[in-house]
Write a structure and sequence with these properties.
The protein is an alpha+beta fold and about 190 residues long. It is built from 4 helices and 9 strands, in the order H-H-H-E-E-E-E-E-E-E-E-H-E. This is DUF4367 domain-containing protein.
């Protein structure tokens, strides 16, 4: 099959337009160069970079009547007089997935976080160094506890009235998102 010069030029122009138009390279002086990284580093993820979402962007959590009932039953099994639930998730797509009891500890598992609550202190399984303090409200300060051996993720630990609370995740997260969720905790009645 023979192609005319005009057909070859037309296919070439279309190829340049498609490839050039679909590339991510911008001529804008303020754009990020293709060689720089916009993905947060592990340190940024672990310490809460400048890139978490604002509290307004976090998911407002809602609970079904059945979920509330399951939480209250599980809290009773764990020996909790008062159980707390967050009204804000730890990310834009957070929701409650599972309610568990492990001995005297209630565990609420969400898409982006897990929350353990107990009437007894929830201590790390080994001695860990001092963590930084997180002011959650006027009367409650939390503490970021460094990761235990075998884990790369810190956890947030605090006490609400007579309930000890531990926020954690198996995935990297933004500390400010967990703190926003912790600040939103209210008693479930």
């Amino acid at each position: 099959m023979k192609y005319t010069t005009r057909q070859i030029l037309m296919v070439s122009c279309l190829t340049v337009m498609v490839v050039g138009g679909c590339s991510n390279v911008s001529k804008d002086a303020n754009s990020v160069s293709p060689t720089s990284s916009t993905v947060p580093t592990i340190t940024e993820v672990a310490t809460g970079p400048v890139g978490g979402v604002t509290e307004d962007e976090l998911t407002k959590l809602t609970y079904t009547d059945q979920q509330k009932k399951d939480i209250l039953i599980a809290a009773q099994k764990a020996g909790l007089k008062t159980v707390y639930i967050p009204t804000i998730g730890a990310g834009p797509d957070d929701s409650l997935n599972l309610v568990e009891v492990d001995g005297n500890t209630l565990i609420l598992k969400f898409v982006r976080q897990a929350i353990a609550e107990s009437a007894e202190e929830i201590k790390p399984s080994e001695e860990v160094g001092d963590g930084k303090t997180a002011q959650l409200n006027d009367t409650v300060n939390g503490k970021w506890i460094p990761a235990e051996k075998g884990s790369s993720v810190n956890f947030l630990y605090f006490k609400l009235d007579k309930t000890y609370v531990k926020y954690y995740s198996s995935k990297p997260f933004f500390e400010q998102d967990f703190e926003a969720s912790a600040r939103s905790m209210i008693p479930l009645e």
